[in-house]
Structures are given as structure tokens and as C-alpha cells.
Amino acid sequence: MEDRDSVVLVTGAAGGIGAAICERIEAAGLQCVATDVGAPDRPSAWCLPLDVTDPRDWTTVVEAVLERFARLDGLVNVAGVVARGNLHEISDDAWHHVISVNQTGTFYGMRAVARPMQQAGRGSIVNISSTAGLTGFAGSIPYVASKFAVTGMTRAAALELGDFGVRVNSVHPGSIEAPMARRLGPRLPINRFGRPEEIAELVHFLLSDASSYCTGSQFVSDGGQTAGLLRD
Asked: 188 in a domain, yes or no?
């Protein structure tokens, strides 16, 4: 995606990793469409409200992007929420809310952009999963379930869209300096929190032509967390 006219839509763009991704896209000279439940405040991006759990919102936003730019080259599904608690503590409402945003919202996003990308014969979809989408974590079963689902949906979509020139990959952050992070946990090989801009660099790589042979893959940025645990 080296074309400076390329258009990338980012969800969950109001802060944290989403905001950092928008900044990286803008720095690369690409057109960023920044979305969140309330339209983000980014002067250098086109900002729109988007409830990722509402398929009608997805239709409205994608149609608006195509009407304005006549193209949509990239989608980064960032929007996500977490509910913490042990198995017997998670309420039905908490379960459905996490699944609705993290899993169903990602599905709606991929579905909404698939046809215009297929018709254009190009596109890159990047789904933000988590290390929780690769290995289990206690105390947040809805989050783990949703992120494993994102990992699987990414693989399936890559298989379906590859013949049309559309690539689909997932990014798996570890403990990142963001509102959702509480503590670093066990000592890591790179023993610090990751920075949102480090995730943004990885996402930009996956959006760009530098990753033209990458699809259906999981890209981990976790300080070595999933490699195993170090002893103090």
C-alpha cells in the first residue's frame, strides 16, 4: 500500500493503540478514516462515529468512505473491551458485551469491506487480537474467547479473500501501555510494557506492500510473553 491516495479505516481510534495506528498511517501520508463510538477528534483524519456492533453503522460508514474517496484499501479492527472476573462471576450481560464488540464487531467490519476490496482487487485487513488469542488467561474468559475467535476468523477470511488480492492478518499485543493494561505480570525477556506506537509500526507493515506475501498469519508483539516464563 505505497499509493499515497490509499484509504485506511481504523476502529477504536479515540485512544491507545487505535490512536497510535492513526498517527502512523497519517505520518505515512495515507488517508486515515478514524472511527469510534463517538467520532474521534483527529484534525488530520476524517473522523466518523461507528458502533462496531451495529451492522447498519458499518454499511453507512463504508458507503460514506467510498462516496468520498472512491476506494477503501485497508481496515484495522481495533475496537475492543474487556470484562474481568472468574468463570462463576461473569454475568450474561458482560459476556455478550465483550463478544459483541470484540468478535462480532470484527466480523461485521470484515464483511462490510470485503466486497469493495474484492471488486478493487486489493486490500489489507488487520485484526487486533491479543496474546489472549493464542493462549489462555485466567480471570477473563469472555475476552479470551473473543480474541481466539478473532484469530480463527482472520485465518478463514484470508483463505476466502486471497484469490481477490485481499490479505488478512492478526496482530497480538502483549501488555501494552493502555487503559486496558493493569500490571505487567511475570518477568518477560523484554521486561517492560509495550508502547502503542510499537504496535502501530507492526500494523503499518501489514498494511503496506512490504508485507505483500503475508496473509492468514499471526504477528506477535509481546516482549517474549508467549515464549515462556522467566524465573526471577
From this structure: yes
